[in-house]
Amino acid sequence: MSELNELYQQLILEHNKTPRNFIKPEQFTHDADGYNPLCGDHYHIWLKLDGETISDIGFQGSGCAISKSSASMMTSALKGASLSQAKELFEKFHSVIMTKIGDEIPEATIEELGSLGALAGVREFPARIKCASLAWHALNAALTKTEKSISTEIEKK
Prior knowledge:
alpha+beta; four-stranded mixed β-sheet; Sufe protein. Chain: A; single chain; 5 helices
């Protein structure tokens, strides 16, 4: 299992060093901003929908290796995906990273996530879950055309 963890760590570092889709697409139909005030991760997501298909997607910003890798892997997985596939992938990803430590994650679920399965280990570090999920929440904000910046923290009134 340590070999698999090492492979996953290498994948995360590779996506951090050379992020995929780290660009603002020339044409986009949806966009949103995501911010984690606790650690300073800040990303903007752009996507172009052609009907129900994500024909292009990109991101820019800065943050830790986990947040940048997650955004890179997310955009790679979603380019060309339908909205229903995107929602299904988000639900699987979110359920994996939110699984309590000690609870079993079905191996088939990790395999269905593809490279995103490398981020399953963040659940062992609760503060890093927000890093891994930031781009995903920004994606959801873009799809619902939320006007304000998405934050990982609840606003205090």
